[in-house]
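User: Assemble these into one structure.

Assistant: Restating your components, then the assembled model:
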Amino acid sequence: MARKLQGYGPLGVLINVLSSFWLACALLACMMYLTFFGTYAQIDIGLFEATKVYFTSWFLWRDLGAFSLPYFPGGKLCMALLALNMFIGGFLRLRITKRTIGVVIVHMGIAFMLVAGLVKLHWSEEGKIGLMEGETSAYFDSFQLWEVAIWDMDQPFTGTELVIPDEHISDLTGDERRTFTHPDLPFEIELSGFVKNCSMQPKGPNWQAAGPVVDGWGIFELEPMVESERNVGGLHINVIAEGEVQKGLLWGRQFAPWTVEVGGKRWAIDMRNERYLMPFSIQLDDFIKDDHPGMSMARAFKSHVTKINGDGSQEKVLIQMNEPLREGDLVLFQSSFNQFNGREYSVFSVVRNVSDKWPEYALWVTTFGMLWVFGTRLVLFVRRQSKRTSAPGASS
Amino acid sequence: MSRFLLPLLLFVSLLTSVSSAQESSRTEPWGDEIVELFQTLPVQDNGRVKPMGTLAGLRLFMLNGKRTLKLPSGEKLGPTEWALDTIFHPEQAKDYACIRIENDAILTLVELDAKRKRDWYSYNELLPARTKISREAGRVFDKREAGEELNVVDKQIQKLDIDLRRFEGLMGMMEPLRIQLPTNATEPLRELFGEEPSVGSMALIEKKAEFNALRQAAVVNRDETYDAAIRVLDTISASFAKTRLSANLIPPPSEEHVQHLHELGFDWVDGEEWWGITETVSIGVQGTAPDQVEMLAALQGMVHAGADQAAFLTSLRSLHDKAETLATARGEYKHIEREISLYAADPFWRALYLFVFAFLLMLASFLGAKLEPLKWGGWAFTTIGLGLVVYGITMRCIIRERPPVVTLYDTILFVSSVMMVVALVSEALFRTRVALTMAALVGVIGMFVAGNYELREVASAGDTMASVVAVLDTNYYLAIHVTTIAMGYAGGLLAGFLGITWILGQLVGLGARHKAGFKALTRATYGVVAFSLVFSIFGTVMGGVWANDSWGRFWGWDPKENGALLICLWMLFVVHLRLGGYIRDRGLATMTTIGAGWVSFSWWHVNMLEIGLHSYGKIDGIFDKLITVYISLAILAGISVIDHFIKSGRGPAAH
């Protein structure tokens, strides 16, 4: 049983509240609400948006026109409080005895699982690599996040470029604008008017462009897709040098970067999915879709790849469903495939996550704890029952 | 629509243009040895090798809704006899009323007269509207492609079209061996094949060297024999159209021989996919495959035997010996006899009878103290029934070489059996008789639902032991995640059953008279909740571990994951409410009753949301039933709360 703190003033009250059963119950009920409605929300707004709204937010917000009000705790707040509740109530304040040790283990296991989720949420990178047979890549692209990359076109490409990440771009909606400078750049960059999903079209009379029209072209805003990775973002860009402004539009699927000339040098500016470097390159040698005999249903998707390490050494690796390639905290999974002009194309999901295996460790800890708790109670119960039935006069 | 019209026109033209020989009727029931040998013939279907008896059973089940067929003459056909008739005496099988029409609206749609709202029709009765049925199925296909919602009639007309195609596939399976070939068109051909047209492709295969030489010579001479030879080959090719959706019953040759066939230009041949009649005839005519051609010759012997069952049996023996030898050499015959035994035993259906009997005995045992010994009968029947279910599940595991739960159909069998095991253990511990009654009731409901769902599974997947998609091809995670999560479902549902019993018992006034019994029931319920909690949490998190290995994320908030999480959260909620003293016996019963709704939501409902990685689409009939379950459980929980307030003196009745 948890001990109540007395005589510690407001701190004691706070700790009593944070470690209480009723708070645990309330948080579990809130989590159920979020899980249920977050699941249904996916039908309309898709998994990515629903996750942001319900599960990785501090609060659920209600839009009241002029302002928004929080009306319910979000998943992040609930899980943080639940972890705190488990830590204080199930560990610090619990009298540790042979009977309660299992409860402590269970709570620690689940708290560790939540910590693993937190680490994944904030410190992981996720993306994809799409390779035709014979192609090689040393980086992977984010599914949803965007970046603006700038490099000097007149210099031989050294692999170094200046990058403005998604966190400085995706909030530039409406009238928001932000200026970027760098010692290596002879100009300033002003970004504005970020649109989550759009296409670039010649401005016509029948539609209103999002933001100013540049050289007869405008941003045609589209409804965000339910599958968020299918959204293609767009931006307005101003390159400002020596009081002169060059206006442009950036789009996430543009075939070639936008080029500007400043001080006699040409610069390339590209909008693309955020790109993450890997410590090795991957070359797709062969992709195989292995069907069940006589059916078009695949029983295996196999990518035979060559992993080219930083020192030039090479390894042949097979990546297939349920058998990813793990290298440190980087994992490559067989994700999907396609065919273009008779050539096969394999897509790998890539995750860099330091807490990759933590949930599994937490699972074994939690399971051990649960078996301890309920196992010992069952044994006690059976003993009591057998004593009762063996007592004189006892009957079934 | 055009994609359907072309094959349809081809089909109709084939019906009229290709003349078949050797059409005959069966004059006596099939002999036992014929049935025995034919049902144990290995065939490859839906990605796995299974006995012909199983394939026949599945096809008849899809068409007829049952695995047997009673003829107007009183003769009762099993699936193997029905398949023998359909394959070898198709004209006779066309008159069998074996095609179930669920809704007469589809007959109105294709301008046919309906007998009753739901009835059985023969192929010949539907034949006048065959073209319209295909056209309507094409319309439904286009509608689906356009993303429009299909109504019941749409779905049923589409099913009818597929059923008819499968039936036609079986009827046309031997067409290349039955076809009349124009081998007497020119003098050189008559010298080779005789004055009468040859019947069946084997005639050509047996004389292919001479035929090819004749053809080569005809090319050089540019005479009419060249065209006549082409017509012979075209006739065979045309007969192939009828063999679609039949079965592959000829094992491919060895890897070395496959390489040889590749060199001859048969690139499509691989060492895994079995051959149908079409493939075997093609290779027999243009390539070499001695074992396979030997099987083909045996099949032709069976086709040509007509009503002569002795001749039929001789050819069947030869075919079976060869098939068994080849399949055994490939390691694909080992489960054939076992599968036949499983279907012959029909364990789930037989168990249903036992559970019904056990349940009735248990109900009777509550009527008076003198009838209490009836519970031993309940124990016996429930245990034997459970044994049958476990036998069936085990056999399915062995045959598939997979853990017990792979498909939704498996989950019904597995969850029911786990519920029964837990209920029996609870009964042994708490001796309330309620848990034993619940075990029998769960058996009745589980086997009944399984029996009903089996037809849906067969209709959609073609088999209840269907091949799995790539991501499920891991016995480790299937065993450790899917089975444990199913055990969590079982615990949650059983706790719900016990909770419902508690509430109903209180409502009818048993609570005051049997306080100790209800106390024991509460303890049993709490024990089952603990069981469910352990397995739900383990199964759910293990699902995350699997997802992490398959897709790179431990938790993706996918609807199925969320459904499982909801069960865990609910169970944790209940346990904490109980430990915190916020609920007592009634509260536990009420909460577990609601918990059964969460389990149903997670088990079935989330699959029908049409989002996420576990989406199977809306399953007709089940969605409505789920809503009924939710409403019933909510009403019962509400009544329990009202009852509590009334009995505690706070309700209107107290005044």
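Chain A has three domains: 9-123+357-390, 126-137+277-352, 143-276.
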